[in-house]
Automatic annotation (TrEMBL):
Pfam families: Glycos_transf_2. InterPro entries: Glyco_trans_2-like, Nucleotide-diphossugar_trans. The keyword tRNA processing does not apply. PANTHER family: GALACTOFURANOSYLTRANSFERASE GLFT2 (PTHR43179:SF12), RHAMNOSYLTRANSFERASE WBBL (PTHR43179). The keyword Transcription does not apply. This is Glycosyltransferase 2-like domain-containing protein. Keywords: Glycosyltransferase, Transferase. Belongs to the glycosyltransferase 2 family. Residues 4-113 form the Glycosyltransferase 2-like domain. It comes from Hymenobacter frigidus. It comes from the Bacteria.
Length: 279
């Protein structure tokens, strides 16, 4: 049984829309676990009244993304999950999303699968996975690298985000849960899928499974928009900072091949220090 784990904190309107999109799936053989980490905007009441079929786990407001996901995964495993999918609440699953994920998961039972992401406003693809060259710290964007005729099926990638990330039980049994101690919010998903790939599990972006997303609503995009000293500090050191130097260091040391480690670290630090002001 597939269990979809969604960590939430406020943003009730996104959670409602996400859960409604899951109700409209062409396949219904899945369950949903929402980890509500102390929402104060009416989310608990909304979940209880409008979505009684959802299993809700309550946090104390200090879980952040990674610990929230881990709490939800533990709950799903107790309930008998054989497949886990992590999902953010600010996505909309197209009606055949679950069907397309399970179709490919049945063909590749050891693979971790991500989804093609569309801009909710325009419907245009915005993320289709990437391949990282550790030697140069450069990324190949598959959306632009692949001709449109190949925008279907599975494509191997270096890592995947946690928005619509399908994880077989075998992966969890071998490498455990997400690294909530060292990567409490950002990069935990990229780290997890990188570690899984190094343990021999294929990592694919599934272009047949589509999610609508809101690119401008991510925490790191909102931090970058401020362009202030406070925003710069949050970008580099805040727990929700997309350029968090500590998180980047942990991710790199865990995953970068040793011969390329010094250059990758120095190049990554430089990009984070100046990149905030280039967006």
């Amino acid at each position: 049984m597939l269990y979809i784990v969604i960590p939430v904190f406020n943003r009730q309107q996104f959670t409602r829309a996400c859960l409604l999109s899951l109700r409209q799936q062409t396949r219904a053989d899945f369950r949903v676990v929402v980890v509500d980490d102390g929402s104060t905007d009416g989310t608990p009441r909304m979940l209880a009244e409008e979505f009684p079929e959802v299993d809700v786990v309550t946090g104390d407001g200090n879980l952040f993304w990674t610990a929230g996901v881990n709490v939800g995964i533990r709950r799903a495993l107790v309930l008998g999950a054989t497949r886990i999918m992590t999902m953010n609440n600010d996505v909309l699953a197209l009606p055949d999303f679950v069907a397309q994920m399970l179709r490919w998961a049945d063909r590749h039972p050891r693979a971790i699968l991500g989804a093609l992401e569309l801009d909710a406003a325009s419907g245009q693809p915005v993320y289709g996975g990437e391949r990282l060259d550790w030697r140069t710290n450069t990324r190949q964007d598959l959306l632009t690298a692949l001709p449109p005729t190949e925008h279907h099926g599975l494509h191997a990638v270096t890592y995947l985000p946690g928005r619509g990330l399908l994880i077989p039980l075998e992966v969890i049994e071998e490498i455990g849960l997400f690294d909530e101690k060292r990567l409490p919010h950002y990069l935990a998903d990229f780290d997890y899928t990188s570690v899984a790939r190094r343990h021999g599990f294929p990592v694919f972006c599934n272009y047949d499974a589509r999610l609508s997303t809101y690119p401008d609503e991510s925490g790191q995009e909102q931090t970058r928009r401020k362009h202030s000293l406070r925003g710069y500090f949050q970008h580099l050191f805040g727990i929700r900072g997309g350029g968090n130097l500590r998180n980047f260091t942990h991710f790199t040391i865990k995953n970068c091949p040793r011969p390329f480690l010094p250059y990758f670290l120095l190049n990554g630090y430089a990009r984070r220090l100046v990149g905030y002001f280039l967006h």
